[in-house]
Design a protein that fits this description.
The chain is α+β, with helices and mostly antiparallel strands. The protein contains ten helices and 17 strands. Helices cover 23% and strands 27% of the residues. A five-stranded antiparallel sheet has the order 14-15-13-17-16, covered by helices on one side. The chain has a four-stranded antiparallel sheet with strand order 2-3-1-6. The protein has a four-stranded antiparallel sheet with strand order 10-11-9-12. This is RRM domain-containing protein. InterPro entries: Nucleotide-bd_a/b_plait_sf, RBD_domain_sf, RRM_dom.
């Protein structure tokens, strides 16, 4: 053969090796568990502490377990598994995230090895023609990842579910006035031990989570209580007038933590697990004095409206464990006090 042909073969081999490097210099990670309303920058900032984040993509819907999810792309990752372990325990809005290597790593489109014209790029031919505009079967990569479908020509469009229009002229709308105060307690123990003058009043209402509502005969009495912090700061973090308070949905979720190895039982570890789902307000403490070691129980405040029932992965000393987190019903109420751990009398 001529020397020029050997030079051409070596040049092709070099291009193939270079293309392989370009395809693998980006690493995708699957991130779940962040609260509703989280912005991309709120994820990017903590995740950037462990490498160069070049892209954060929100799925636009929830996964099959009802969690928000996102794909985060790092550049120039040397060891993907080592980075995955470093990302365990990372938090966003005080909620612990779940980070795993994405099962499907996105590959960059291969460039054609033969010379192409502008007409070829605009009008690819043949059954195996490749498009380089990021579109596949009329879906972009982002749409395909989020599970979006494309309407076919003869496909019927389902009618949208009609909206439920509610009445705004309610008794409670009038009740939430200048004469009503909204307060958040320090803990459930503080709610259960409120002074009788507050707790036993028919005008004191338990809302949800750690929040209480107190209605007074007139706005002057309500303002006097609000201005005198010595009357409430021992029990409440803050007190506001109901007409100036923006009601944000938050509920108490009682969680059973199942399958945690006994050697890892610790209040801090139970809190780390529960913080993935919300803010811990009732920890699983005093473990040494407990007699039931079948499961841990933790109460959290969450904005999630769906029932929590998940299996998650934890890591301890480099070993992975699968544990279950199951929500259960606990009819706790300050007006019907009951211990968090109920023990049946023999």
């Amino acid at each position: 053969m001529k020397s020029g042909e050997w030079t051409e073969v070596r040049r092709r081999k070099k291009v193939q090796v270079q293309r392989r490097v370009e395809n693998n210099d980006l690493s995708n990670y699957f991130v779940t568990g962040f609260p509703n309303g989280t912005r991309k920058e709120e994820l990017r900032i903590p995740l950037s502490k462990f490498g160069l984040v070049v892209d954060v993509y929100f799925g636009g819907r929830k996964d099959y377990q009802g969690n928000n999810f996102a794909f985060v792309r790092y550049k120039d990752v040397v060891d993907m598994k080592a980075l995955e372990e470093k990302l365990q325990g990372i938090k966003c809005r005080d909620v612990t995230l779940s980070v795993n290597i994405s099962k499907h790593q996105r590959k960059a489109p291969q460039k054609p090895t033969h010379a192409t014209t502008n007409s070829d790029r605009r009008h690819p031919t043949g059954p195996a023609a490749t498009r380089y505009d990021g579109i596949r079967d009329n879906r972009s990569y982002a749409q395909a990842t989020a599970g979006h479908t494309v309407k076919q020509p003869n496909q019927q469009i389902r009618p949208a579910t009609p909206l439920v229009i509610l009445n705004t002229h309610t008794h409670m709308n009038n009740w939430l006035s200048k004469s009503t105060l909204i307060a958040e307690a320090h803990s459930f123990d503080h709610i259960g031990n409120l002074p009788a003058s507050i707790l036993m009043s028919d005008d004191t209402k338990y809302l949800r989570g750690l929040r209480m509502a107190m209605h007074y005969g007139n706005s002057v009495a309500a303002q006097e209580f609000l201005d005198d912090e010595t009357r409430w700061r021992e029990w409440f973090k803050w007190v506001e007038r109901a007409d100036k308070h923006e009601v944000r949905y938050e509920r108490t979720a009682w969680l059973k933590i199942l399958g945690l190895p006994l050697k890892l039982w610790d209040e801090v570890n139970f809190n780390l697990i529960a913080e993935r789902f919300g803010r811990v307000v009732s920890p699983f403490d005093c473990i040494r004095n407990r007699r039931d070691y079948s499961m841990g129980k933790v109460g959290v405040l969450t904005s999630e409206k769906r029932w929590i029932n998940q299996q998650i992965t934890i890591i301890a000393a480099g070993v992975n464990y699968q544990i279950g987190v199951v929500e259960y019903t606990n009819n706790w109420s300050p007006f019907k006090p009951a211990p968090f751990d109920q023990v049946e009398e023999e």
